[in-house]
TrEMBL record:
GO terms for biological process: mitotic cytokinesis. This is Septin-type G domain-containing protein. InterPro entries: G_SEPTIN_dom, P-loop_NTPase, Septin. GO terms for cellular component: cleavage apparatus septin structure; septin complex; septin ring. Residues 1-264 form the Septin-type G domain. The lineage of its organism: Eukaryota, Fungi, Dikarya, Basidiomycota, Ustilaginomycotina. It comes from Malassezia globosa (strain ATCC MYA-4612 / CBS 7966) (Dandruff-associated fungus).
């Protein structure tokens, strides 16, 4: 199973192991100059109750950290599409017994606990990702909000998701098994999941050792359903709906990608690379503006030169007319002198 996320501590909490390294804030600050969203791939093999899972976690440090986040989702979309492309290439081979599946089956999209609503960037990115992958919205650091503010925040997020037509993963409701159907409905009612991430064990006031965060007012427990939705998210990803996530990727998202590629490409033809790098777009736009300004400048100079030539032509024409009139006058004077000379001779 492959999942993508931007909160390493939550992944470590989910799987109770150090899969993803913690955030290095000093390095994060130094990489601001690069202005590039990174894609880090972490692979591990987990075993729980004699059940083994090959897990791939894709972390995206740098996402949304810049003042100008234009097209910051491009590396994420390209990575997801590249995994579909790799799988489709394997299916086209004569030998297909062992397919190496690196497709992204779940995307945990972490929402900052602002208490207001989704930001325009969140809306745009979620719309694009939901067309390619099973999108699961998550409210990070839920212990920073009061229960009332958290409930209002989640309701606002659901309203925005409905208004903008964002598709989030919905676990199927079993019409036969009522208990399973009730569990699926409970999961859907909790979206977006509120999460508290912690890998440390702390002692509660009644003496219990639990994973959570300790504050002056008490302990925020990771696995307490009255504090957050961690257990529901873990159930969705690992225990009850892992196969549904994989099947939905296979039957819907991957099939849409494969159909689109087969309609627009010939068999064996390589995928067309889209040069959507935001930096290249900015440079192209700057060059276009520079070229336009240069053309306007040259046009202005040409018009001035043309007006100068017209003025010079008119001046020369006037000089020619003046010279021609002077010549006529001289010819008339010469003719008068010649006539006067003939009269004197007689």
């Amino acid at each position: 199973m492959t999942t993508t996320t931007t909160e390493p501590i939550v992944i470590n909490t989910l799987f109770r192991t150090e899969l993803a390294p913690g955030t290095n804030y000093a390095q994060r600050h130094s990489t601001q100059l690069d202005k590039a969203v990174e894609v880090d791939v972490i692979r591990a093999e987990l075993e729980e109750k004699q059940f083994r899972v090959n897990l791939t976690v894709i972390d995206t440090p740098g996402f949304g950290d810049y003042v100008n986040n234009r097209d910051c989702w491009a590396p994420l979309v390209d990575f997801i599409d590249d995994q579909y492309e790799s799988y489709m290439r394997q299916e086209q081979q004569p030998e297909r017994k062992q397919l190496h599946d690196q497709r992204v089956h779940a995307c945990l999209y972490f929402i900052a606990p602002t208490g207001h609503t989704l930001k325009p960037l969140d809306i745009e990115v979620m719309k694009r990702l939901s067309q390619r992958v099973n999108l699961i919205p998550v409210v990070a650091k839920a212990d920073t909000l009061t229960p009332r503010d958290l409930a209002l925040f989640k309701e606002r997020i659901r309203d925005v998701i409905r208004t903008h037509g964002i598709t989030v993963f919905a676990p199927p409701v079993d019409s036969i098994d009522e208990a399973s159907a009730e569990h699926a409905r409970a999961l859907m009612s909790s979206m977006p999941f509120s999460i508290i991430g912690s890998t440390k064990d702390v002692r509660t006031y009644d003496g219990r050792m639990v994973r959570g965060r300790e504050y002056l007012w008490g302990v925020a427990e990771v696995e307490n359903e009255h504090h957050c939705d961690f257990k529901k998210l873990r159930s969705l990803l690992i225990r009850t709906h892992m196969l549904d996530l994989i099947m939905n990727t296979e039957d819907y998202h991957y099939e849409n990608y494969r159909q689109t590629q087969m309609e627009t490409r010939k068999y064996g033809e390589p995928k067309v690379k889209k040069f959507d790098n935001p930096r290249f777009k900015e440079e192209e736009e700057a060059l276009r503006r520079k070229f336009t300004d240069q053309v306007k400048l040259e046009e202005g100079r040409f018009r001035q030169w043309e007006q100068h030539l017209i003025a010079e032509r008119d001046r020369l024409n006037k000089d020619l007319e003046t010279a021609h009139g002077a010549i006529k006058q001289l010819e008339s004077e010469i003719e008068s002198l010649q006539m006067a000379s003939r009269t004197q001779r007689r």
